[in-house]
Structures are given as C-alpha cells and as structure tokens.
Amino acid sequence: MMTCPSSVIACSLQFMRSAGERRCECVVLWLGQRSSGNINVVSAYLPLQSARSDIFRIPAQGMIALHQEMTWRGIPFASGRSMGNHKA
Description:
Order of helices and strands: EHEEEEHE
CATH superfamily: Cytidine Deaminase, domain 2
Shape: globular
Number of helices: 2
Strand order of the largest sheet: 1-3-2-6
CATH class: Alpha Beta
C-alpha cells in the first residue's frame, strides 16, 4: 500500500496546474520510503524536464539531480505522476 499526505498531493497538483496553464505535459515524482511492505510518500519533486503538449523528457542532468536529491534525503523510492495538457 502507498500512503501520501494531502500536502504532497496538493503540491503535485500545483505543479501540474502550472504546466497545464502552459498547455504542457508534466511529470511530478513522489519520493518515499518503504516500510513493512508499504510505501510512505514524503515529498513531491519536480525534476528538470522538457515538455510539450503530449510528451515530457527528463534529460541526463535532471536524472543526476534526482539521484542527488534522493541520496541527500535518504529516500530510495520514486514514483511518477503525469498529466497532459488539461487543467486539474
């Protein structure tokens, strides 16, 4: 089971709405920790990405920054959430 605080959901929606206003795709990663078979999401992370109305791409430098963030926070898990060019 995955648990996610409402604050992380709200932050994710804010990132996605901002992209939607630009009519772009957007991916938000949920960073979390595994515990007893469960995943506890602790933060929303907006990686460096290039996006258009139907696609997003995380470049190499974005992946490096993601790995650095996860290492710094001691977080071994990331799950992606994306939204197309609609408003949430």
